[in-house]
Design brief:
98 residues; mainly alpha; two-stranded antiparallel sheet; 67% helix; elongated
């Protein structure tokens, strides 16, 4: 199994960590925070584009899309910036709440 060496922060002795994970609980917290922020960015992408995707698919299949899906696509597409701001500022807001 592949291992890598790194210096621990408490002292200068090398600590071994496997390629599949980290050794300290603080790194696990950081990994969870990074994963959550990545999920927020991906979620904002999906929320804003899913209606446009459905609109295009329905339009290709039927030749015309319904009013509801067009309305949802027109509402959510411009909100992508707002969702990105929420995802970007989430770590800062949670830090301020503590």
């Amino acid at each position: 199994r592949f291992s890598r060496f790194r210096l621990s922060r408490k002292d200068s002795t090398p600590a071994v960590a496997s390629a599949s994970g980290t050794t300290s609980p603080s790194n696990n917290k950081k990994n969870r925070k990074v994963f959550l922020q990545a999920c927020l960015f991906i979620g904002s992408l999906l929320i804003t584009n899913i209606f446009s995707y459905v609109y295009r698919i329905v339009e290709q299949v039927n030749g015309k899309a319904g009013f509801g899906i067009v309305l949802l696509a027109k509402i959510f597409q411009p909100l992508q910036g707002m969702f990105n701001i929420i995802a970007y500022t989430h770590p800062h807001v949670t830090a301020l709440r503590r």
